[in-house]
Amino acid sequence: MKTSLRFFLLLTVLTGILLTACEPVEDDTTSDDPRDQFVGVWQFAESGLIKSTDGQSYIVTISKDAGNSSQVILENFGNPGLQDVIVTGTVTTNQIVVSTQNLSNGWTVEGSGKMTNVDKSSMSWTYSIIAGGNEDTYNATANKQ
């Protein structure tokens, strides 16, 4: 009788554990981090310099700055041609602001990009680059890849 009672108790405990483990867990994929909407790979297409020359198209990778909870890192911003040239931007509700920065390749950049659609897949950018003493201002559309 004692063996049957022990077996019954063990079976009850194991069944309780298994049933508890099988309960669905709600997946909370929402985030309060405003940087999340900007993280990813973006195809920048310049509409040209304000001076009306043809622009270029290039990829920018945006990631969270682990050292600052309000900043993102933009790799290849402005298409400098060097892999180690990065730009940081401060994120607000729906835009990235790139304050004036002197880059390792000798460029100085500044500008901003703002989300332009509800599904957060497109941004409109205006930025300037000083390279070799010349300052050029660009408009670009960035589409999330």
* CATH third-tier fold name: Lipocalin
Distance between the termini: 67 Å
Architecture, CATH level 2? Beta Barrel
Shape: elongated
The fraction of residues assigned to DSSP E strands is over 45%
Helix-strand layout with pairing:
Elements: H1 2-21, E1 40-49, E2 57-64, E3 71-75, E4 86-91, E5 95-102, E6 108-115, E7 122-131, E8 134-144
Antiparallel strand pairs: 1-2, 1-8, 2-3, 3-4, 4-5, 5-6, 6-7, 7-8
Question: How does this model look, in words?
Answer:
Helices cover 14% and strands 46% of the residues. The protein is built from 1 helix and 8 strands; from the N terminus they run H-E-E-E-E-E-E-E-E. The protein has an 8-stranded antiparallel beta barrel with strand order 1-2-3-4-5-6-7-8. The radius of gyration is 25 Å and the shape is elongated. With 145 residues, it is mainly beta. Strand 7 and strand 8 (134-144) form a beta hairpin. It has one helix spanning 2-21, and strands at residues 40-49, 57-64, 71-75, 86-91, 95-102, 108-115, 122-131, 134-144.
Short description:
The chain has 145 residues and is mainly beta.
Which characteristics define this entry?
about 140 residues, Lipocalin, 1 helix, eight-stranded antiparallel β-barrel, mainly beta
